[in-house]
Amino acid sequence: xxxxxxxxxxxxxxxxxxxxxxxxxxxxxxxxxxxxxxxxxxxxxxxxxxxxxxxxxxxxxxxxxxxxxxxxxxxxxxxxxxxxxxxxxxxxxxxxxxxxxxxxxxxxxxxxxxxxxxxxxxxxxxxxxxxxxxxxxxxxxxxxxxxxxxxxxxxxxxxxxxxxxxxxxxxxx
Amino acid sequence: xxxxxxxxxxxxxxxxxxxxxxxxxxxxxxxxxxxxxxxxxxxxxxxxxxxxxxxxxxxxxxxxxxxxxxxxxxxxxxxxxxxxxxxxxxxxxxxxxxxxxxxxxxxxxxxxxxxxxxxxxxxxxxxxxxxxxxxxxxxxxxxxxxxxxxxxxxxxxxxxxxxxxxxxxxxxxxxxxxxxxxxxxxxxxxxxxxxxxxxxxxxxxxxxxxxxxxxxxxxxxxxxxxxxxxxxxxxxxxxxxxxxxxxxxxxxxxxxxxxxxxxxxxxxxxxxxxxxxxxxxxxxxxxxxxxxxxxxxxxxxxxxxxxxxxxxxxxxxxxxxxxxxxxxxxxxxxxxxxxxxxxxxxxxxxxxxxxxxxxxxxxxxxxxxxxxxxxxxxxxxxxxx
Amino acid sequence: xxxxxxxxxxxxxxxxxxxxxxxxxxxxxxxxxxxxxxxxxxxxxxxxxxxxxxxxxxxxxxxxxxxxxxxxxxxxxxxxxxxxxxxxxxxxxxxxxxxxxxx
Amino acid sequence: xxxxxxxxxxxxxxxxxxxxxxxxxxxxxxxxxxxxxxxxxxxxxxxxxxxxxxxxxxxxxxxxxxxxxxxxxxxxxxxxxxxxxxxxxxxxxxxxxxxxxxxxxxxxxxxxxxxxxxxxxxxxxxxxxxxxxxxxxxxxxxxxxxxxxxxxxxxxxxxxxxxxxxxxxxxxxxxxxxxxxxxxxxxxxxxxxxxxxxxxxxxxxx
Lengths: 173, 385, 103, 206
What we know:
CATH topology of the domain at 51-124 and 131-163 in chain D: Alpha-Beta Plaits
Strand order of the largest sheet of chain D: 4-1-6
Structural class of chain D: alpha+beta
Number of strands of chain B: 0
Order of helices and strands of chain B: HHHHHHHHHHHHHH
Oligomer: heterotetramer
């Protein structure tokens, strides 16, 4: 069965490469609509990596919430805000080169740390299935679960109030 | 009966054993995966072709006309003729259109509908991929079509298609929430997300154990099916491609094979949604005498007949009614339904039926009262008397 | 299974790309996209560590990832609401053109 | 009336229609489409398509006498008639050229009503599509000729009524001729009696 595991590994590395490329594209593409689509591809790649880690539930939730809802939200916002077709305004500000250098430096430091520390090679216990996650959510993490539902309700109402059309408070200058 | 029931599983095992004799072990596992993929890749488009024919025949019969019968014996070759016509039609790309999204949209709309086939249990032991997050996988995959519809509508640089895209995105999102919530009771009772376990949980008593015969199951089935119909942009909810108002919605600027892909995605979606509805509520491949896969296809095609029946009868509903139905009627009903399913889980015997039925009937009545449309006050005519 | 260090390098790369995007982008929606990337990089690390390092409590990392995904969706929702409200008033969402605290 | 019943009634209507379309007879609820080329609906007798010229027994004795009334009456002016002349230039009661342009004719049937000689009638033949509009759809005299038996076949009641009327006219004319002949003879007989007293003398002097 050796070739199969090799195949899976190659697949995972391929997915990593694709999602990195998509991430770079989503950062650098001038047309914001294409950038959002590139981000969707990157997130799908990350969901693939979650599958590689046998965390199926997380992968499916990631696809459902990110690619299904957040990207759609972003595209709605893009359509409501600016005229994408005009190429006149430059997409990136002047800090390009400097930030690139700093980012590369940060990345090299991180890689050096990651390389130097000895990580455990093999995965220890079997992957947590959906039922274990459910038990844990209702068991030790029930407080966090309730807090996050409160936060989501607050966000839900807050976002609607902010984005509502006729806000009496702010009147255009 | 047993062999007929397992005919596909046995034939696949036969092929694998045959391959196993002279191929190394890992190639055989690859072949096993390849056979399943090939089966789905054939099943998908073929069901789509014959669903178009079935739709035109059934709607024809409802309107006292015959439907296609020129090509082939009873019009059986009509889908092939449509396919050839679609292939030979010129493929027009509007000037100034966003080439990337215009080209990618039809592909990205077909992929999720094909992926959705992976978790549907076609028969006993015939679930292509038995994920233990099956139902969630189906919902996640069917939610990604929104992006493809956005790409189609924005890519074809046409006001009608952007309007259609916006409408269909709003509809898809607002009908996805009740759809997901209507599946929760089934998972709660069946105790697992895997479609195969759900079907096994409905076994027994010659079919009376199906979830649709419980009060919460009946409501959940109606809501799931309605949301499924809305998800495929079909029949009463086909606002995105409302021919009368916005030409053809988000696939206005598509012609030739690209349009056929949109068409195929719609029909494959309606097949998979009906298949899942049958699996979750009508006991998938459970059935007394006939082989299991035959039961599955009978139930799925019965549900597809209902979808076509909707198309033959119901007029298109307005956007505000569409949104109102989703958010003000289906959403609260599903939440109450989850409560009812929870109570069903913890009570026993007659009390179980009484409590759940009364809660659901009461909430249904209350919601219809709340949603009673406001009657606009008498119009005041300024000039006309 | 791929070694943990490769996964960490991958998420570090995602983090760096996200930071670069957040700093360099002029369009606020673009900045929000890059922030999504950064959050995803962190979430990936949690699952990776939970699968490799921890012996006992396997679910902690996965649950943390779920919470990060939920929070990221909430943050995106509020961020975009602000962007839409801003666009309605100032007719522009280029970050360097919005430089007045009160107008 | 609970919420969904209106929709259910509507659905029942189409389902009933769907089911009955299989075994109900065409006119009460079944399928009434006739699959045209294979099965055809019998044409009603007064169905009008393009006109044709009538001849009795053989194509030579045409009923049409080229009186040009139908050409004048035809609203879109699609009939063109040229009278036939015999060798020494005397006009004959036959059309040498009788053209009808089927692309112009709107098969209104006015020529049929206007024709005093029962020569032109509306046909039932409608499958006359052709590739070339100008040459093939301009029918000449010989293309338009159709026998009286054909006329009886397609419009039995009208044909028999017309033939009866013609036969009567025939007899009346014969009777009139006979009467005229008789009157003629009687006048000669009377004239002959009135002149016998003076002898026929001038014959020798001329």
